[in-house]
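User: Hello! I'm new to structural biology and keep hearing that structure can be predicted from sequence alone. Could you demonstrate with Phosphate/phosphite/phosphonate ABC transporter substrate-binding protein? Please show me the input and the output so I can see what each looks like.

Assistant: Of course. The first part below is the input, the amino acid sequence of Phosphate/phosphite/phosphonate ABC transporter substrate-binding protein. The second part is the output, the predicted structure written as tokens.
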Amino acid sequence: MKRLTTLFVALLLGLSAAHAEFKLDPRYSDNDGDLIADIPTDPKNLVDPSTLVFAYTPVEDPAVYADVWSEFLAHMEKVTGKKVQFFPVQSNAAQIEAMRSGRLHVAGFNTGSNPIAVACAGFRPFTMMAAKDGSFGYEMEIITFPGSGITKPEDIKGKKLAFTSQTSNSGFKAPSALMEAEYGLKAERDYEPVFSGKHDNSILGVANKDYPAAAVANSVMKRMLDRGVVKAEQIKTIYKSGTFPTTGYGIAHNLKPELQEKIKEAFFSFKWEGTKLQNEFKAEGQFLPITFKNHWAVIRQIDAAMGVSYTCK
């Protein structure tokens, strides 16, 4: 298994100023240069909802994660004094649109959709999950099933490769760039790209032999293995990348400043020990403060390499 060597060297050396191409939708301002939407200064542009709506990144079974997050959301209710409702989302696009339209207030956006949420929906990320020692992140893996005839990325030529969605970092952007940069394999020309919609779908698709190969976030795969949704003997990894930042959690830009601070307090004061959240995210044990400008720099560079547009529809 190789790592994202050639691709990252090209990105970091050839596109060192790529983050300068990132810009917010005209409806938002960024006067302090931190690359996220400023909180409105005019009180009439601020909102103070009686119920906060929270959404976790799209997953195969939202009901499972409604339960996983239940204790955390109860904690947020105590800290903020607001009701908090879990909102199951079916796609990255639907999640972004929900925040852009004002129907979503607090959310975890996956790695790849984070920049689009920031640019188009006024998302203000401030934290992500991390281990107790401060380590964080996940790797992209290209997986297949034993007996598929695929032992290395080059063997995908002439076959199907399952991606999740076009906004996903590990589920599309990084692997498609990698396949072309390191192996000379271009989508449509050298292999057939198919889209499953979610990492869970791609992993299940490979385990059930519906897809010969798929690019996925190994953090999702580990949780599915832990829950027994798939078995280790059903999956074989043929590529593992370097580490990427994981899901970023944040707030809609136009919530009242004091409410935004209370929401942050809820994340950073949550006690993980013995909770459903800890049981699901076994490698994590805290919410670590982050900045979009620094922690998502490499993701914006990958977007630039792929010609991703932040023009909002």
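User: So the tokens describe the shape?

Assistant: Right, they're a compact way of writing down the 3D structure. Reading them back into a model, for example: The first strand starts at residue 51 and ends at 55.
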